[in-house]
Amino acid sequence: MLTDSFVSKDVRLDTWIRNLSNAYEHHILGLVSTTLIMHGGKLIGFYAARVGNLEVEEDEKKQLKGEAYIPSVEILYFVMHKDYEGQGIGSMTMMDLIADLIEANAYMAIRYLFCWSVDVPKTLHFYRNRGFDMMDTQQDGLRLMRFAIPDTRDIQLISEYNDDLLI
């Protein structure tokens, strides 16, 4: 089976992806979408995400004039095979996902990308280096991380900065 040889540094995630029927069922029901990262026919990583409304912290609730829940995307699992960690594949995948969300934010509101991270310094560092903030919320040994999706009006193409740029 595709998932039999998948081994990360977290047994919980290995168990979840090995039971691919659960991931498939959640996908068919529209509850969670699981994206497999493949290389040479081998599963080297995956992430499972869903759209939802998450409750904001009290300070932000005041800024949002009492709105308690905000539109967001939540990554339930984001993991690479242990043999492919540190090669930039996870970084590239995360940045592609963020770019897609920035583009989608132009026509539908997505305020944040949330991610549940193992509470391990190296992993938390991975998310912080990609612009995620560490939240106070913890659950089952996982820490909630938050990335603010910028509005496309706040983003300019690099060519707008330098007209002499050769493309």
Automatic annotation (TrEMBL):
SUPFAM superfamilies with a match to the protein in the record: Acyl-CoA N-acyltransferases (Nat)
Domain of life: Bacteria
The entry's keywords: Plasmid, Transferase
InterPro entries: Acyl_CoA_acyltransferase, GNAT_dom
Domain N-acetyltransferase, first and last residues per copy: 1-150
One Pfam family, short name: Acetyltransf_1
Gene3D superfamilies named in the record: 3.40.630.30
GO MF annotations, alphabetized: acyltransferase activity, transferring groups other than amino-acyl groups
Protein name: Acetyltransferase family protein
Source organism per UniProt: Priestia megaterium (strain ATCC 14581 / DSM 32 / CCUG 1817 / JCM 2506 / NBRC 15308 / NCIMB 9376 / NCTC 10342 / NRRL B-14308 / VKM B-512 / Ford 19)
